[in-house]
Design a protein that fits this description.
It contains 6 helices and 26 strands. With about 425 residues, it is of the alpha+beta class. The structure holds zinc ion.
């Protein structure tokens, strides 16, 4: 008996609540998350959930049954139900709850508590509610039926956005495109005449475009230089690499924030200090981020200092390697577990923007030290992230060459025929 491969495309839309800041955030879809590819394994269900771990019950929504009623029936406390509906409202349309729709509940084998709930508005799309250590995550996903490989090319006249012909995937493509090449190219300087090519997957559900899949390859001609990024995934290695197999990403983020924050004061070795009224170097960059904005470690490293440091206020200092150290000042508080000696990962929250120490207002002073000397964080040449190791080099070159070939073919039919050879 042949069981079709079921590919679950998980579009994670996590709504996080930040302390001191009620802004809700959407994480970018987890592209690097491994798609759950399910074969005829008995221990996983159609939603990619390990069935050994739960007692599973299937139900259908009854007449006049709201999410509230439904969750109450499954044993959730009114407080938890309220929090769940609040979060759910931001992600899904609760009005689309209809009698007859299926839902499936997963109860812990240990304490019989509800751990997961899957609601199927129709046979194609499903919404997963997961409760993990008191934390709720809601995601929407689909049984992807069809995946198409697309290649577009364009010339920039007004903006990258306008130059992308695929209207369905346009906004997402711009975002991912610029994320991938953000380390090499300042996307605010793209100009008329720059050209690009993108090779990517599109996912279809029920014959309709559902979501953007992976971007497999990128090519950008900018100011007379050509930039490439090839997606490569083998073993634990998963990312974008240039022609030579160097990662296009850096081992350090450009700024210590998830989103762009405005720079209020630049790196300046001869700055007039407005508080002290004398000239003294400004050995970093100040970001005018809102109070309470999470501050991220720009790279993996070890915390050298995390304490109150007089004029610096609450300061965190991180050593990334023998060359680079970064500092973060004026934090209102430190993130949980951040103290001297602990290891941090790139992107980990280390503290929150505040106005402790000698400052005129709320801001983050961010400094980069290269071999102990302050350098301009905005212009310093940062080291590359992991490159393709020797043992994968020939595999990478093969993928790269096939992607190049696909990038340069003329029409969609040829792309379809190359599709098979690109499958991992
Ligand atoms: Zn500063």
């Amino acid at each position: 008996m042949k069981k079709a491969l079921l590919v679950l495309l998980v579009l994670l839309i996590t709504v996080q609540c930040r302390q001191n800041n009620t802004k809700t955030t959407k994480t970018t879809p987890k592209r690097n998350a491994q798609p759950v590819v399910q074969t005829a394994s008995l221990s996983y269900d159609n939603f990619g959930i390990n069935t050994d771990k739960y007692h599973i019950r299937n139900y259908r929504i009854k007449k006049n049954q709201s999410l509230y009623v439904l969750l109450k029936k499954l044993g959730l406390s009114p407080k938890k139900i309220l929090a769940t509906s609040r979060k759910a409202k931001k992600i899904i349309n609760l009005q689309s709850f209809r009698p007859g729709q299926k839902y499936r509940a997963y109860f812990s084998k240990k304490n019989k508590k509800l751990k997961k709930l899957i609601w199927e508005p129709n046979g194609l799309i499903f919404v997963t509610f997961s409760w993990n250590n008191g934390k709720l995550q809601i995601s929407r996903a689909a049984h992807v039926e069809n995946e198409k490989l697309k290649r577009i090319s364009g010339t920039i006249h007004a903006s990258l956005y306008n130059a992308i012909s695929d209207q369905q995937a346009r906004a997402q493509l711009v975002k991912i495109f610029s994320n991938i090449l953000a380390w090499q190219v300042d996307f605010t300087t793209l100009r008329k005449g720059d050209t690009f090519k993108i090779l990517y997957e599109k996912n279809y559900v029920g014959g309709q475009y559902y979501d953007l899949g992976k971007i497999l390859a990128l090519k950008l001609n900018h100011k007379g230089k050509t930039y490439y990024a090839y997606h490569f995934h083998k073993g634990k290695l998963n990312g974008y690499f240039d022609k030579h197999g160097n990662s296009v990403q850096k081992s350090m983020l450009k700024t210590p924030f998830k989103y762009d924050e405005r720079i209020s004061s630049r790196f300046n070795p001869h700055r007039f200090n407005p508080v002290l009224h004398r000239y003294m170097p400004h050995n970093g960059v100040d970001f005018a981020a809102p109070y309470g904005t999470p501050v991220l470690s720009v790279g993996n490293g070890r915390v050298l200092e995390a304490h109150y440091g007089g004029p610096a206020g609450n300061i965190v200092k991180i050593r990334h390697n023998s060359t680079f150290t970064t500092v973060y000042m004026h934090l209102c508080r430190f993130a949980h577990g951040i103290h001297r000696g602990v290891h941090v990962k790139q992107g980990q929250v280390i503290g929150y923007v505040g106005h402790t120490g000698r400052v005129t207002g709320t801001n983050l002073h961010y400094g980069v030290y290269k071999n102990g000397k302050p350098v301009n964080p905005m212009t310093v040449n940062l080291p590359s992230a992991k490159s393709i190791p020797k043992k994968y080099m020939s595999a990478f070159k093969e993928v790269r060459d096939r992607l190049n070939q696909t990038l340069s073919v003329k029409n969609q039919n040829n792309i379809d025929s190359l599709r098979a050879s690109l499958a991992p």
